[in-house]
Amino acid sequence: MGMNMVQQEALLNFMEKRKELILRLESKRLNKESFLDENYFLIRRLGLKPYMQLKTREECLLNYQYYNCLAKENLRFSFASENSKKRKLYDNKAQNYYNEKDKATKRMVELTDGSDMEAYYIVTSSRRLDNVLFEIYIRSIPFVILHSMNNEIKAILSYKNAFTQEKKKSRIHNYVNCLY
Hints:
By secondary structure, this protein is an alpha+beta fold. Helix content is 56%, strand content 12%.
């Protein structure tokens, strides 16, 4: 069953507003934390929910953004918590959301031709992420740069001849390496 007109309109509205938020971030009118908050509020304001079956790249992008926002929100709660049990709870929730984000990323990669993608490890200021975090740049969709550490996604990218072992500076280097 396809999207109804209201869902389709909300998804198009999300794509446009997301682009506006990225432009505000690039022009430094938003910092990373505000950018993440605004994305989360945008999804809530539009009444969007994650898709159960991802049929389009736009649906994948919505799920990616939705789960990324929730994961990062839970990490912020974890960092702020003094209680170790609460920290563990928030960390577990964040990991679950990152797993859901990776499902959306995997589906996006499956739906995209290999010649339309470029993927590579990125230079990070984090030892934990070094040689683990990679970036996926999709040429045909403006403002789409995805990140993952998932080996299954990396394998699909390699199979599609889209992954290079060369480490590069992220296209959004300052954003990726900024703590919030």
